Protein 1
Amino acid sequence: EVQLAESGGDLVQPGGSLRLSCAARDIFNLNDMGWYRQAPGNERELIARFNNRGGPIYADSVKGRFTISRDNAKKTVYLQMNNLKPEDTAVYYCHALFTDYWGQGTQVTVSS
């Protein structure tokens, strides 16, 4: 059974960093994983994923600050977030693309 579990969300000051993790049980190909976020009152948006060759694709809002990576042995996908801004405040989700599988989300709050 596919299970996705995010962790690593926290309260951080502007300019700070966080690393989110997504443990992906029973996902065959981690290249089919992506990170989304949803801020209050906003739609859920895709912010990072892998292309079909395993390279990263980012939304313009996070390009240059966030990095998606994966550890195939640990079946885990990561999102390194640097230079965080208040507008990055949201619930962050990992998602198995082309499926209905989502994690429960982890809260990231950027505030001084």
Protein 2
Amino acid sequence: QVQLVESGGGLVQSGGSLRLSCAASGFTFSRYAMGWYRQAPGKERELVATISSTGRSTSYADFVKGRFTISRDNAKSTIYLEMNSLKPDDTAVYYCKILGYALDYWGQGTQVTVSS
């Protein structure tokens, strides 16, 4: 079955950095685009970044452009989110998702907390 396991979150000071990972299994990883989403307390889940199946194409929400970088390693069935210049507004649970898949699958997420 499809599994998505996010990791790498934690508590960091404003201006700091974190690198999130999402290990995927149960489907042909190299065939699908992937995305990172986040959900802050009391807010709806929002798209942060996407990456194509080959990794050649990426896109970012305006609020993370220039600070976050999405990447993938198809040999390891893993995507990453490098987060720099973190702000308190980046505090949220971060999730990865398969894009264009028949069903929606979500992992348990990884908590990112940025202190001011």
